[in-house]
Amino acid sequence: MKNAKEFLTKRQTSSGFNTRLKCFVGQYLNYKKKYPNPIKILDIGCGANCVLFKHKLGEDKYCGCDFYDKINIEIDDYKSINLNEERLTDEYKGEKFDVIFCGEVIEHLFSPDNLLDEIKELMHEDSILILSTPNLSYYPNRILLLFGISPFFVENSSELKLGRGLKMLGQGHLTEGHIRVFTHGALKDLLKLKGFKIISITPVPVWNYILDRLICRLSKNLSANNVFVLKK
After folding, report:
1. 126-151 tens-digit pLDDT
2. 35 lies in a domain?
3. Domain count, the chain
């Protein structure tokens, strides 16, 4: 079997500026209203195109890390790191960041617990962590399971998505490397276990369907994804 880095490099997910990333930027801008002086940003899993870098303000310093040896654009600081094999705190030893992005990362890790512990070491008392991961209890998943169909976000093969029945549901598509998948409640439990304080939770759609947008207004438990703002 190919190593994890090579596997993930060939399974890049969408890097467009979607609703979830708009929420990330919105939370960053809210922080800047309170702390207008130049700040340090760390984008964990920044992607090859570092979409969030394009939205930083003024003299803020943007540091990004991911498993790619090189990325497609030049940013303030980039580090290549495989979070399943290397420690984030070894790469950023002694550093503190004001805003930390961690979007769609923890589901790819054998130990999300370790990453969260390391993130806390990189935060000061006024830092915020903006984190998201797919929600296993997304309302279509509840329906799919009733019919014995494997839910979205769960991957039971290292090669192809299986158990979906229909191609339109992802059957036979390449996997994206999901290892840990969380319900909304399970993620809250993990964050509490790791000692984080939840400041806000914003439900966001993964796919821009009218019903998904409506569900986001009604229920965090049923939404496709939730953006957490956290303090240590």
Report:
1. 999 999 999 999 999 999 999 999 99
2. no
3. 1
Q: Concatenate the DSSP letters of all residues of the chain into one string.
A: ---HHHHHHTS----S--HHHHHHHHHHHHHHHH--S--EEEEET-TTTTGGGGG--TT-EEEEEES-SS-SS--SEEEE--TTTS-HHHHTTT--EEEEEEES-GGG-S-HHHHHHHHHHTEEEEEEEEEEEEBTT-HHHHHHHHTTPPPTT---SSSB--S--SGGGTTTPBP------B-HHHHHHHHHHTTPEEEEEEEE-SS--HHHHHHHHH-TTTSSEEEEEEE-
**117 falls within a domain:** yes
Is pTM beyond 0.70? Reply is: yes
**Residue 219 falls inside a structural domain:** yes
Note the pLDDT of residue 1. 40
Q: Is residue 25 in a domain?
A: no
CATH code: domain of residue 212: 3.40.50.150
Identify the domain containing residue 202 by its residue range. 4-9+40-137+181-231
